[in-house]
Design brief:
Largest sheet: 6 strands, mixed
Protein name: Sugar ABC transporter ATP-binding protein
Structural class: alpha/beta
Keywords: ATP-binding, Nucleotide-binding
Pfam families: ABC_tran
GO molecular function: ATP binding; ATP hydrolysis activity
Distance between the termini: 33 Å
Number of helices: 8
InterPro entries: AAA+_ATPase (IPR003593), ABC_carbohydrate_import_ATPase (IPR050107), ABC_transporter-like_ATP-bd (IPR003439), P-loop_NTPase (IPR027417)
Radius of gyration: 19 Å
């Protein structure tokens, strides 16, 4: 497993008016690994992802990418670093085909004319690099694709632009068993290709199937960062629902955002 994070967040705070949503949050994403981001509804997962992608600017804290401290103040800043997010709604256009969706807003041109052959070649090479075999034609309308195929196209679109970190928001939420298996295989393949992958999921089976590390958020705080092999389902559920696990015995003084476990006692809870 990689020793140095590709993307690392430390001490991240984010407030909306008087409401503080993120408190001293830490998150590390490593190249060649899948990091699962878990937490109950309202834990701060979506806000954190929007801070990473430049939709929201952070109030405090540092963001380090590839060993250098960076400022991510817009989605363009994130894209230039190589950070792509695949949101749950996928942001695909049903009336366009696969190639048109993958290049939407970033079309290749030859003079004033769209360079269709180049775009089709690049789309095909990207899907082939991910060993995608479920798409029959690159010129299929997205409206004709299954849920798993749509998710595949959205992920391929994210990695088309030399991305280094891909964040996936509930990629299997609306899929059946077979399609879920296909998407999880693709998620694992992204990491095996050297990308840093963050997987947001409520499905513990998915988390344990593909992740190398788990980051649990509780009430806007990092409850733990831990290797997946070091915890059980029940321990992760306890972190999600209570913010700590009594069966995890590492010292509570370990700093938030550090590798390993971080035990954070919620305000007002017994120590």
């Amino acid at each position: 497993m990689a020793a140095t994070p590709l993307l690392e967040l430390r001490g991240i705070d984010k407030s909306f008016g008087p409401v503080q949503v993120l408190h001293d949050v830490g998150l590390s994403i490593y190249p060649g690994e899948v990091t699962a981001l878990v937490g109950d509804n309202g834990a701060g997962k979506s806000t954190l992802v929007k801070c990473i992608s430049g939709i929201y600017t952070i109030d405090a804290g540092t963001v380090t990418f590839d060993g250098n401290q960076v400022a991510v103040n817009s989605p363009r800043d994130a894209a230039e670093l190589g950070i792509e997010v695949v949101y749950q709604d996928l942001a695909l256009c049903d009336n366009l085909d696969i190639v048109q969706n993958m290049f939407l807003g970033r079309e290749k041109k030859r003079g004033l004319v769209l360079d269709e052959p180049t775009m089709e070649q690049m789309a095909g090479e990207t899907l082939a690099s991910l060993s995608v075999r479920t798409v029959k034609s690159l010129r299929q309308l997205v409206a004709s694709l299954s849920g798993g195929q749509r998710q595949t196209v959205a992920i391929a679109k994210a990695v088309l632009w030399n991305s280094r970190v891909v964040i996936l928001d509930e990629p299997t939420a609306a899929l059946g068993v077979a399609q879920t298996a296909q998407v999880l295989e693709l998620v694992r393949r992204l990491a095996d290709n050297g990308l840093g992958v963050a997987l947001i999921s409520h499905n513990m089976n998915d988390v344990f199937a593909v992740s190398d590390r788990i980051v649990a958020l509780y009430l806007g705080r990092t409850a733990a960062q831990v290797k997946t092999t070091d915890v059980t389902h029940s321990q992760v559920v306890e972190l999600i629902t209570a913010g700590r696990s009594g069966t995890i015995g590492l010292p509570p003084e370990k700093p938030a955002g550090a590798a390993g476990y971080t035990d954070i006692t919620p305000p007002g809870a017994d120590a």
